[in-house]
Amino acid sequence: MSESSSLGRVVAFGGGHGLFATLRAARALLDAAAITDLTAIVGVCDDGGSSGRIRKAFDVAPPGDLRMAIAALLPNNRLGEGIESILQYRFPSGNSESGLEGHVVGNVLLTALWNGGASTHEGLDFLGSLLGVQGRVLPCSAEAIDIVAQIVGLDPLDPTRSSEVSGQVAIATTGGRVAKIWIEPTDPQACQEAVEAIDQAEILVFGPGSWFTSVVPSLLVPGIRRAVARSSARRILIMNLSEQIGETTGFTPADYVKSWCALFSDIALDAIIFDLDQTQGQWQCEQAAQSVGAKAFRIEVASSAATHDPDKLADALRFVARDLGSK
């Protein structure tokens, strides 16, 4: 950390609503000058809804999670709120022939920029600058990526049999257990700007969010993983509040940590933030954290059983970062 009162340069990984909560928390810290620089590194695996349709039609990165990250970093004022409502507006589904049914305004804007010649990160930088975004949003890779998993337990007649399932939507809603997960292509080109942000970071934040389809995918990109593994930054994992029916049915906090260890044995963690009301007690949380060399912090960060509160999360990140100090 650059100084005792500052968290320095922060990079947050993930996608969807989980990353949105983290970025809202980090934006508040940025506004308070507790963070000097903020970058979101977002997965590009979405294949459902508006993003999936755009990805298939225009051969571009799925824009949905990138759009949500931009929305999270809009200025915290009335104008920012108004821009967010427009950026997040979804055209109603129906029987009209406009072709806009189900699409989101921000997705269309990003697609227009990319289709007009801007690279993935150039389009994101331009839209962010235009909208007064606080921080920077980058993809983990400039090319769209597919997630593939081996799922055990889909066959009721043979519970031990594994099946290969492809796609974010299919994996997120699986009825079995994820035994193995990877990306295709297996070695996509990492976004160089994202690698540079990791190299310069003083804190790396992972999660919360859909574990196998939002938190994990960016780290499966070899160039991103290498950058994280060699980084001297403090690494903080924000623990999910509960299982996600489908991809992590039955998961306890310890199961999430075991999964991290199995997937990323080369990436140690310095801290794990557990909610104070996490179903497992203090001892179990501490044991889980120690298994990956991390310090457990049990702090009230939830606004409900399923969502993190950005204000509470901001306080937690500030406290944890100061407690960890500099490496």
Q: Characterize the quaternary organization of these chains.
A: single chain
**How many individual helices?**
13
Tell me, what is the CATH class of the largest domain?
Alpha Beta
End-to-end separation: 8 Å
Structural class: alpha/beta
Name the poorly predicted regions: none
CATH topology assignment of the largest domain = Rossmann fold
CATH superfamily of the largest domain: CofD-like domains
CATH architecture type of the largest domain: 3-Layer(aba) Sandwich
How much helix, percentage-wise, in residues? 40-55%
Average residue-wise pLDDT: 92
- From the alpha carbons, calculate the radius of gyration and give it in angstroms: 19 Å
List the strand order in the largest sheet.
3-2-1-7-8-9-10
Into how many domains do the coordinates divide?
3
- Total strands: 10
Give the amount of beta strand, in percent: 15-25%
Shape: globular
* Helix-strand sequence: EHEHHHHHEEEHEHEHHEHEHEH
- Biggest β-sheet: count, sense, barrel? 7 strands, parallel
Description:
The protein is α/β, with parallel strands linked by helices and 327 residues long. It folds into three domains: 1-6 and 22-34 and 190-327, CofD-like domains (Rossmann fold); 45-139, no CATH class; 146-184, no CATH class. Helix content is 40%, strand content 17%. The chain has 13 helices and ten strands. A seven-stranded parallel beta sheet has the order 3-2-1-7-8-9-10, with helices on both faces. A three-stranded antiparallel beta sheet has the order 5-4-6. The longest helix has 16 residues, at 16-31. It starts with 8 loop residues before the first strand and ends with a helix.
